[in-house]
């Protein structure tokens, strides 16, 4: 990967919703989310004509996967429609779309060319964007011998659709880092600067719009919020902000994206002052084999809430109270208070699951978390996000003894219970999206 003066590298972290699953979908309640040290990085390179690439092409590649590159042509859409990209058939490989990448290109390029500063289509020159995801986003089935040094960005030996995700929020981190990289690459600093509050606001609003469009639903957006801002107590934006956008490729789309993204009506609340992790503690993630169908679980919780308003609202309010308490306790490192608040979060999430029929903290998870919490140095545990069978989040003391005990326990538990549970390397992290420096080696490992 050659170094180039006009390259930008933008990274965004994964997420863990420690407390506030389901309630954070409703603007009346907030959730506590931490960023994760597993990042998705996007590196841009202008394409040189000598490479023989057609002049209106944008290439996005994700070289850790097979069939890993997507080539797009781009054309202006009349009537303030912005830009529409069309995936070009590479001819040599199977034609595979990447809906998240394509939607992000449509939104971000349309935003850029429709800005009132009269950016024209000519500001979009051919370029290549390389996606590099930290290893913890995916579980691998291939084993390397202990003597083989692990690459920073491992090759997965399969296509993205077949890769086993660990649930760290790859699509939100990808959309956010790609959006940040496109904006940094094509716009002058006077129009986009990721290090300023207004730059982060643009990145947040545009990434939320693109991510919602790509996933075909308007979720709470906590994953994109933490990809941009890192750890925070998050209150969602009003979904109506995104409901009137026309589809990409139609008249008025580009103008509508600019109006929406730059609108003063965005009402999300990102409270960073309330969140930090005291020295001596770490947030760690456990990956457990087994899937979770978040969409159907949300439907079950909503149906229960509709039919049991008073009880559900009481539970939601109690849970939100614990969000605030847990945030404060993590910040000052009060182990007793963390233990108590995480215990309450577990109790309330378990009850929400039992009442609604959604398997939020299934009995197998209850067993594993109870046993984990008995280990010395484990302060508390929860099923993060929507819950289910596939993950656990731990707050532990930051010492090798505790990590060793947790790893040994998970190995023994996996054998005993016939599951695969392992401690991921990833750590809870406070910082959000950032411009990475080009340090002349770090991005050339693939
Ligand atoms: N490294 C990557 N390179 C290219 N595209 C990626 C990459 N990682 C994720 N994506 C895109 O994001 C999609 C996965 O999004 P999806 O919403 O299914 O999972 P997710 O956000 O990782 O889920 P979770 O919140 O459970 O972690 C992939 O199909 C692909 O389009
Ligand atoms: C259930 C929900 O509140 C959290 C889902 O979190 P996760 O994808 O399981 O980390 C949905 C949402 O907030 O969009």
TrEMBL record:
UniProt KW Kinase keyword: yes
Residue ranges of every copy of the GHMP kinase C-terminal domain listed in the record: 338-411
Report the Pfam families cross-referenced here.
Answer: GHMP_kinases_C, GHMP_kinases_N
The UniProt entry, under InterPro entries, shows: Erg8 (IPR016005), GHMP_kinase_C_dom (IPR013750), GHMP_kinase_C_sf (IPR036554), GHMP_kinase_N_dom (IPR006204), Phosphomevalonate_kinase (IPR035102), Ribosomal_Su5_D2-typ_SF (IPR020568), Ribsml_uS5_D2-typ_fold_subgr (IPR014721)
Q: Which residues form a coiled coil?
A: none
Which Enzyme Commission number(s) are on file for it?
Answer: 2.7.4.2
Q: For this protein, what reaction is catalysed?
A: (R)-5-phosphomevalonate + ATP = (R)-5-diphosphomevalonate + ADP
One GO MF term attached to the UniProt entry: phosphomevalonate kinase activity
Q: Keywords on this record?
A: ATP-binding, Kinase, Lipid biosynthesis, Lipid metabolism, Nucleotide-binding, Steroid biosynthesis, Steroid metabolism, Sterol biosynthesis, Sterol metabolism, Transferase
**What pathway, per the record?**
Isoprenoid biosynthesis; isopentenyl diphosphate biosynthesis via mevalonate pathway; isopentenyl diphosphate from (R)-mevalonate: step 2/3
Outline the extent of the GHMP kinase N-terminal domain: 164-230
* UniProt keyword Magnesium, yes or no: no
Q: Describe the family membership recorded for this protein in Swiss-Prot or TrEMBL.
A: Belongs to the GHMP kinase family. Mevalonate kinase subfamily.
This chain's protein is named: Phosphomevalonate kinase
Q: Which organism is it from?
A: Podospora pseudoanserina
- Its gene? ERG8
């Amino acid at each position: 990967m050659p170094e180039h003066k006009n390259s930008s590298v933008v990274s965004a972290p994964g997420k863990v919703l420690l407390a506030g699953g389901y309630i954070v979908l409703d603007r009346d309640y907030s959730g506590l989310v931490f960023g994760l040290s597993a990042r998705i990085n996007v590196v841009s390179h202008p394409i040189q004509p000598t490479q023989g690439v057609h002049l209106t092409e944008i290439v996005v590649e994700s070289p850790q996967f097979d069939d890993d590159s997507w080539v797009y042509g781009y054309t202006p859409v009349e009537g303030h429609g912005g830009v529409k990209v069309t995936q070009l058939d590479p001819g040599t490989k199977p034609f595979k779309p990447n809906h998240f990448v394509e939607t992000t290109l449509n939104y971000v390029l349309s935003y850029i060319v429709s800005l009132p500063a009269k950016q024209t289509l000519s500001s979009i020159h051919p370029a290549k964007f390389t996606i590099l995801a930290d290893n913890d986003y995916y579980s691998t089935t291939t084993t390397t011998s202990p003597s083989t040094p692990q690459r920073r960005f491992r090759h997965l030996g399969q296509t993205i659709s077949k890769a086993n995700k660990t649930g760290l929020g790859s699509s939100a981190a990808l959309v956010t880092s790609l959006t940040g990289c496109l904006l940094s690459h094509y716009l002058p600093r006077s129009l986009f600067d990721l290090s300023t509050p207004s730059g982060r606001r643009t990145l947040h609003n545009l990434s939320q719009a693109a991510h919602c469009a790509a996933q075909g639903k308007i979720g709470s957006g906590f994953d994109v919020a933490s990809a941009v801002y890192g750890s925070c107590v998050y209150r969602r934006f009003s979904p109506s902000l995104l409901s009137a956008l026309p589809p990409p490729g139609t008249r008025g789309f580009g103008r509508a994206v600019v109006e929406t993204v730059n609108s003063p009506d965005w009402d999300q609340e990102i409270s960073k002052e309330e969140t930090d992790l005291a020295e001596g503690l770490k947030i760690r993630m456990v990956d457990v084999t087994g899937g979770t169908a978040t969409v159907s679980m949300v439907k079950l919780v909503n149906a229960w809430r509709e039919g049991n308003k008073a009880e559900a609202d009481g539970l939601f309010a109690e849970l939100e109270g614990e969000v605030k308490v847990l945030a404060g306790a993590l910040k000052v490192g009060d182990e007793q208070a963390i233990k108590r608040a995480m215990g309450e979060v577990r109790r309330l999430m378990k009850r929400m699951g039992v009442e609604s029929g959604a398997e939020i903290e299934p009995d197998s998870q209850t067993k594993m978390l109870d046993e984990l919490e008995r280990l010395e140095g484990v302060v508390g545990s929860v099923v993060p996000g929507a819950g289910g069978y596939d993950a656990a989040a731990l707050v532990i003391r930051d010492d090798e003894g505790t990590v060793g005990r947790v790893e040994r326990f998970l190995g023994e538990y996996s054998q005993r219970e016939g599951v695969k549970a392992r401690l991921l390397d990833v750590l809870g992290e406070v910082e959000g999206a950032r411009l990475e420096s080009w340090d002349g080696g770090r991005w050339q490992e693939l």
